[in-house]
Amino acid sequence: MTYTDHTGASPKTYLYVLNHRGDVLGLRDEDGIMVVTYTYDAYGTIIGQTGNGLTGDGRLLQANPFRYASYLYNEETSLYYVQTRYYDADTVDYLLSKSRV
After folding, report:
1. What's the pLDDT tens digit per position in 45-74?
2. Which of 14, 60, 89, 99 is 20 to 30 A from 4, alpha carbon to alpha carbon?
């Protein structure tokens, strides 16, 4: 699984580093150097992140869309998108939308 940044003068590709559950532990650049890392608690709350990787706009740490269990992560809301609903790791709860019949 790779992430390609197109915000700079030329595209840069990064390789995801995953654990057995699919958590994104970090991203490696084309030289194999770990440029960002993420640490989670048991429920997916991000408890640590480091990064010296820069995208064209300087935000690789935040620009990466995948995090805990490889779910899509929304940096603004701190919610994960899991199939058809959102998951809040801080409350360990899913946010359900009303279905229309």
Report:
1. 999 999 876 665 567 888 899 999 999 999
2. 89
Spatial distance between the Cα atoms of 101 and 35, rounded to a whole number of angstroms: 47
Q: Which two tokens stand for residue 27?
A: 């991203």
Cα separation, 92 vs 55, in Å, equals: 31
- pTM of the predicted model as reported, rounded to 2 decimal places: 0.84
What residues does each domain of the chain span?
2-68
Total length of the chain: 101
- The span from the CA of 41 to the CA of 29, in Å, is 25
Distance of alpha carbon 23 from alpha carbon 70, whole angstroms: 5
Strand 93-95 relative to strand 85-88, pairing: antiparallel
Pair of tokens at residue 74: 């929304």
